[in-house]
Amino acid sequence: MAMTVCTKIINTFEKNDLEKRIELAQIGMLYTAVKLESGVAGVAYSFPRKGCGPSVIRSGQSLKGTPAGEIVPSLGSNNLADSSLALATINALASTKGMPRGAVLGDVLEAIDIRTQETVCMVGCFFPVMERLKNRQITVKSVDLEQKPGALPAGKAFAILRESQVALITATTVINSTIDPLLEAVKHCREVVILGPSTPLLPLGFKDTPVTCLAGIRVKEPDELFRIVGEGGGFRFFKSCTRKFTMRVSRGEQQSPLKAE
Q1: Which residues, including other chains, have CB under 8 Å from residue 18's CB and lie 6 or more apart?
Q2: In the beta sheet, which residues pair with residue 54?
Q3: Averaged in consecutive runs of 10 residues, what is the pLDDT profile of the chain (261 residues)?
Q4: Residue extent(s) of CATH 3.40.50.11590 domains in the chain
Q5: Are 215 and 245 within 8 A, CB to CB?
Q6: What CATH number should be reported for the domain whose range is 5-99?
């Protein structure tokens, strides 16, 4: 049985990584943020909560001082609050490991080659990216779980992906474990990008998949980010607290080691 992307991401960490402890966790309306005792932070999308199901915080105790190793294995679990917390923790841990070689500051559309007359399938609505592509006379078909302007129902994703040359897939698909079937549908695509603030910049997590590029962020101002997340703000409010990075991923090849950021 093939290893899932969530399992690959979890397996990128060693024992000493997972021993790092949480200093602060913030589960906001739109994003979840985690800061480690070393001061580095990570974020991940918070899916809208429907009721109060079981959670890693069910004991009512603070997450402060909790080893990352107790949180990270929840990535991809059925409890989306736990999975979001796990990915935010993973993104913080990734920052402690340094930036992967080949990662560069910049926006996703600066890193990938999208040609005129190609069809782009966007899984998850990134309106600024969509508008820039449409201004270049590139056909963009967007699908989303939520009803958003210009977005088709999520159920149409697989059919559209199979007809597209470029796939832009939100990293929230890692949180709800829909990423693996989506990656099966994009094997023919020339470019497959995982993007958004939730994106784990961990190329080994996408080894032996069709992914060609990761486009994510690193947090540069944790305190301000926590204030915004705690007040219900989304990425357009806290993007100034972050830096955007992109990196190419070679399909099926062992990735380069990490370098100091």
Answers
A1: 67, 68, 69, 72, 93
A2: none
A3: 90 96 95 97 88 54 92 95 96 92 91 88 88 86 80 85 94 96 94 97 94 97 97 95 93 45 45
A4: 104-221+237-252
A5: yes
A6: 3.30.390.100
